[in-house]
Design brief:
mainly alpha; 318 residues; 11 helices; transmembrane; ABC transporter permease; elongated; transport; MetI-like; MetI-like fold
């Protein structure tokens, strides 16, 4: 065997002078970060896909209720009161002769808006206090922790009754915006300590990491360290809580409305509809069945989404 033959067996055939040389090197795959890896994992979870389909459908209904029904949710025809579902009214009529299907569709908006706003405000308040307390530590951390325990020790329903009853006593003719604002503020005021504790624990852990110590050694100020270095690494557990809490806040709105201290006329929501049906459960069960069914499916969808996000962000599940 000649040296040229041995070389060709070792390195493979060489291209001629007129033949193009094909590159055979493969570029290494770009490493994914925490959120990129979580998204890559979520797309393969049936639980996430099912919950997202339900949530997207609910958001579409909330944004464009007029595309699903042309009926006015407040239009009442007393002669049709408590009529059962039919081709004319798919969900039947309520005790005042209003279309239950139209009210269920339009009620989606108020229920989801309350859940989204309450979750956003809860995370903003609790997250801000938690990350600052975790970074500063010392007496400020102890003060914030003791202050949050006051709200944690207060039962949610009892606290909401006190707050909303106080607000409602000062209002003679409430507007829909004011009613929704009161409920959102009440939920956020009573729920922010949970988000605060989650963010505080994540901040205390992140403060001990080398990248925070390096930034502090290079002269970075506290605001820059918190916003640029700690916050991106502390968001994951808070986002999981927010996703699950959103469904819980929608259920909390229905609970408060059922008790008569939450949303009320002229606002249309699932909780208001459930409250209006409590005296007609045996005579007209459809008044309760359809809004309660939408409420259960919505809460379940957000809980499923939160479970999927938690598993995707949990390194122990990898």
């Amino acid at each position: 065997m000649t040296d040229q033959t041995a070389s060709s067996l070792t390195t493979g055939p060489t291209a001629g002078p007129d033949e193009p040389v094909l590159a055979t090197t493969n570029k290494p795959e770009k490493p994914r970060g925490l959120w990129g890896d979580a998204w890559h994992d979520l797309r393969r979870r049936p639980l996430f896909l099912i919950s997202m389909v339900i949530i997207v459908a609910l958001l579409f209904i909330a944004a464009f209720p007029g595309l699903l029904t042309s009926a006015d949710p407040s239009w009442a025809v007393l002669s049709k009161a408590r009529q059962e579902p039919s081709g004319q009214a798919w969900f039947g009529y309520d005790n005042l002769g209003r279309d239950v299907f139209a009210r269920t569709v339009y009620g989606t908006r108020a229920s989801i808006v309350v859940g989204l706003l309450a979750t956003t405000l809860t995370v903003l308040i609790g997250g801000t206090v938690g990350i600052v307390a975790g970074y500063v530590g010392g007496w400020f951390d102890s003060l914030c922790s003791r202050f949050s325990e006051i709200f944690l020790g207060l039962p949610f329903v009892l606290g909401a009754i006190v707050i909303l009853t106080t607000f409602n006593a000062e209002i003679l003719i409430p507007s829909p915006v004011r009613i929704i604002t009161q409920v959102v503020l009440s939920i956020a005021v009573l729920s922010w300590p949970i988000a605060m504790r989650i963010m505080r624990s994540a901040a205390i852990s992140a403060k001990q990491q080398d990248y925070v110590k390096a930034a502090r050694a290079l002269g970075a100020g506290a605001p820059r360290i918190i916003l640029r270095h700690m916050l991106p690494n502390c968001l994951a557990p808070v986002m999981v809580y927010a996703t699950i809490a959103l469904g819980g806040f929608i259920g909390a709105e229905a609970t408060l409305s059922f008790l008569g201290i939450g949303l009320r006329d002229p606002v249309v929501s699932w909780g208001v509809m459930i409250a209006e049906s409590r005296n007609y459960i045996q005579a007209a069960p459809h008044m309760l069945l359809f809004p309660a069914g939408f409420l259960v499916v919505t809460v379940l969808a957000f809980v499923m989404l939160g479970d999927a996000v938690r598993d995707a962000l949990d390194p122990k599940q990898k």
